Amino acid sequence: MQVTGLLHDLPGITGLIHDTSNRLLLSALLGFLLLTSAQVSGAESEPVGINTLKAVYLFNFARFVEWPADSQDGDVNKRYFCFYGADHLARTFAEITVGAWLGERQVMVRRLARLTDADQCDLLYTNDSVPPVGGPIEGLLTVGIGPSFVRNGGVIGLVQKDQHLRFKVNRGAAVAAKLTISSHLLSLVLVSGAEVDDE
Which of 54, 57, 58 is closest to 8 using CA atoms? Predict the structure, then answer.
């Protein structure tokens, strides 16, 4: 089952970071995205760079996903965001999340040169419409581009439409990876059945 929605409608999207030097900067950024209804470059109002917008989405996706307790063999006090073939987005994400925490876990950024290291990640982003890993990996949230990404077994696919960045969710893929997606996230979306619609 796939669902689709707009992240900027989530409650409590601002004030996400604690004890960080860039708390006000990121909170202001998230508030700005709320005011612009998550519009991307080309909109009539002041544009938001697509990589900045994607970075904010990725950070907030992680806020509304619960990972299995034993999904990470490494440092349990860190949340690893990995980027494969998306160096520009990785840099943007790293810049706006310097010193950021998700709950009790510090946000860490990794650029993967090979997919064999994907099992060391909590979230894996790729600029592709096909999931970069062959199948679900326990505790790995995969995010990619377009509705075909979720059709092909990815968990979340980002879709740019009508000057907004939308997202689609494959709940079956999330279950297979033993990820629990918060009802706050799923309450925004329209269930579209076995196929993903383009609305």
Answer: 57
